[in-house]
Structures are given as structure tokens and as C-alpha cells.
Amino acid sequence: MATETLQVWDYVVIIVMLIISTSIGIYYRFTGGRQKTSEEYYTANRSMSAAPVAIGLMVSFLSAVSLLGASSENYVYGTMYVVVNLGYVIATPFVAYLYLPVFFRLQATSAFEYLEKRFGTVARTVTSAAISLQLLLYTGIVLYAPALAIEATTGLSKTASIIVIGLVCTCYSSLGGIKAVLVTDIFQALLMLVAVLTVGITAAVEVGGIDEIWKIAVAGDRVEFDSISADPTVRHTWWSLTFGGFFTYLSLYGINQVQVQRLLTINDLKSAQIALWWSLPIAVIMSVVTCFSGLAIYSKYQNCDPLTAGRISSSDQLMPLYVMDALSEFPGLPGLFIAGIFSAGLSTVSAALNSLSAVILEDYVKPVYLWRNIEFPVNKFAYVGKALAFLVGLLCIAIAFLAQYLGGVLQAALTIFGVVGGPVLGLFTLGMFTESTTQRGGVTGLLMSLVFGLWIGFGQPKPSSPTLPVSIAGCNATSDITRLSSFTKAESTGDSSYFYLYRISYMWYCPMGCVVSMICGYLASHILRLFFKEESTELNPDLLVPGLSSRLRRKQANARDHKNSEIQSK
Questions:
Q1: What share of the chain is helix, strand, coil (3-state, %, to 5)?
Q2: What is the mean pLDDT of the segment spanning 347-356?
């Protein structure tokens, strides 16, 4: 069966979406303060309300990677991945009441300014470099994912799709700043929801209801929630998904520049915490609906798997292929879906561009001026930021062309988050939860953890992930071939001939990276203190999490009182 292509009305819908997104950036460039100050460009003068920020937090987290990757994940591997949302739920109060208050006390544009105040310039520079690399790689994947959708449905090359999405996103995010990004997120979130619901609703109509989709999924072994193995080499279990989701959420919402910067566009801590809590159910609902869409797609292709039949080249193309097969007779609907995929990519990339621009400006450009004893031209601050956002956008477009070599988009994205985000989370956590960690020790732990994470995350060769049974028996009258996956429940831990660390589930990368960073950083701080005499300075209580900061204030107050009493007694 030939794949349908987009029609004129579909292109009209896509073009209108791109024009609206760009227009929002242009609007905020020429209204209000016209993005002439860094406060307006990067933090919207801290004037945003909780609702748009909550939506912005969701769409930057659930990107095109989630829409395409999570649906194909449930089609190919089953429903076990849904459990990751439990980890997100558990992690939310940790972010809201421990990590977020620290950044609100700081009120800085760059999240890494915390590390300079807590440890020193070296810690800030090394960590911001690592996170910048993470964001660049992830942004490349996010640009690549919508390009997959376009290629599968229109025949338009990935090259053209990546360039169009990248340039539109670079345009409105560099022109309008964070306010344009957040307002555009609302429009794009609506399109994302429409895109996902379209898949589920049309599938339910075709097979006779949601319950029929579920029955077909059960019959095809797609429904699985009983994987409780403690073996870390099993790809998805309750343990790996809960702990992996927990640490991934902390690394993304607790200390990541993209989300911290969005939360700091709100004026007060309580409203920011409300925005974080509001974003949770929105994100979980979108995640569950997207996962269910994978089962909906399976209900259509249960007897004719398009990947095995050669209709597509990657499982990440399943969702757009389904839309073209099911909706091509309705003018404009496939275009609306593609617009939703575009929107998911645009929202995430625009946030990354704005954040990377802020990091480069605050952590690299301004320190150079200070180092050379040259006053930074404050009146040109925003203009430099816009130029940086534009250049970063071009760099992300270039990186997107390399994303195709990273495997499935969902696993690739979570791998990048894990091997970089885990170690960085460890350093921030040491700074906020301990008083004795030093810069030498913390940076040592970070670097050791990064090397370890990159080794196990991208070391080769790795065993291929076991997949669930698929069939092509219904593809045509003469085909009765059925391809079954080559594993059973007992064999699902993988081929033991591969190096053990290379067989560990990618969901453990972030927890392992965080723990290794913390243990090595804490021990190194105490060991290196024996060899290097560091000047003892009084730690600012504001740099510790609530509770510990109060205890340190009391401790320091008692020490001062004791010192004063000794002086008076003398």
C-alpha cells in the first residue's frame, strides 16, 4: 500500500502555524519594552503568571521526541514505560520545596551562577559547558524528530524539514525573548494535544471503541505492568522507571537552565511552586495519552507491521504514517497533525535557544570582559543575547543532521539527559545539601561521573533491545510471514556475552551519574583537603536548601554570640 502525501490544505495549515509562531516573536519585539534589556529578554521582567509558565514547563519537557518516541515505544516494547510518570510525581515536591527556593533567593539569569557562589568560577564554567553540550545535542534530536514525521508523510527530505523548523524557531525566539517563547508555547501546546487526540479518537472509531484498542493490545502482548525485576540490565522495570524518572525529573526541573529560567519569570516563589504543580498533571496526562496512542496505532497495524513491510525506515515514523493512512481523505487534518508535531519541536527548541544564549552570555562573554578589566556594554546586553540566540540556532540545525545516528529518538534523548544531567545534578545537590564539599572535590566528582556516564552510555558494542512480536500476515493476500521477536521473558535481560556495563538499562544512567558524582565529590573534598590548604570562608546559608539553611544560620549566630562573649570576658 502506497503512502499518502499531504495535500494543498495540509500545507496551508502548516504554513499558518509557522506564521503565527513567527508573528508572536515579531509582536513582542516591537511592543512593551521591545526586548531592550536582559531582564525583559531572559526573564520577562519576572512578570509572568503561573498558568503560561506551567504550560511552558510541560511543552519544553514533552517535545516532538515524546510525541513520536513514546508512541513508538508502546507500539514496539509495550506499556511498561508509562510507569516513568510515577517517578515524576515523586520528584515534584523535591523540586518545589528544596531546589527551587535556593534559585529564588539567588534571582540570577544563569542557574550556574549558584555554583560560582557556592564553589567558585571553575565549577561554574565546567558545569555550564557540560549542560550546554547536553542542550545542543538534545536540541538536535528535537529538530530531527519532526523532520522524520515530514519525511514519512510527504516525501520532503529531512534536510529541508530541519532547516525550515530550525530557522522559524531561531527567528521568533531570538526576536521576542522568553515572553514570546512562553506565549507561543500555549498555542503550540494546543496543537500538540490535538495531534495526539486525533490518533486515539480515529483509532477508537475504526476498531469500535477504546476498549477494543485495549483488547487488541492485550492480545498482542503490548500491555505489561508486572516487570519488577531488580536486574539493572532489564530495559524497563518498576525500579528502573521509578528511580530513573525521579532523577531525570530532578535534573530537568530542579537544576536545568531551561526550566529554572522559566520558573524565574514569575515574581514570587509561591506562584512558581504553583506553576510547577500545575505542570505535573498536564505533563502526566499528555504522557499517558501519547503512550496510549501507541496502542491505538498498533490496533491498525497489528497484522501488517509497516516497519517490517518496508513502508517506513524507523519506528519513530509510526505515528505520522498512521495519520496519513487514516486521515488523508480529510483535507487539512493531516496538516493539523504535522503542525502539532512541528509545534512540539518548536516549543522545546525555542526554550533551549533562549537558555543557551543566556548561559553563553552570563558564563562566558561577561567573564571575559571582567577578566580583561573592561566594562561590559550594558546597553547592548539584549542585542548580544539575540545575536547569540541566532548563532546557537544555526549550530543546533547543524547538530540535527547528526541525530539520525543516535538510534530511537526517545532513548537517545533520555541517554543524553542521563549521562550529562545526572553528574551535574550530583554537583548541585552536594552544594545545596552539604556544607563540607569543596570546589576541588565537587569538580573532581563531576568529571569522574561524566567520564563514567559517557563511557557506559555511548560505549560500543551494545546489545539490541528485545522487541515484541509483530506480523505482516495481513499485508497482502500472498504474505503469511510472521516475524516474532527473538526473546522470551526469561531471556529479556539481554545477551550475557556483551560487557556488563553496556547492558545496563539507559534508565539507570541518570541515577548512577548523580550518585557517582555525589560520592566521588564528597570523598574527594575530604581527601584533597589533606593536600591543599583552602582558606576557610563562611558559607552563605542562602545557598543551602530550606531547613539546612535555617540550621546553618542558627549555628553561625551561636558562633558569633560565643565569640562576642569571649571578647567581652577578656
A1: 75, 0, 25
A2: 76
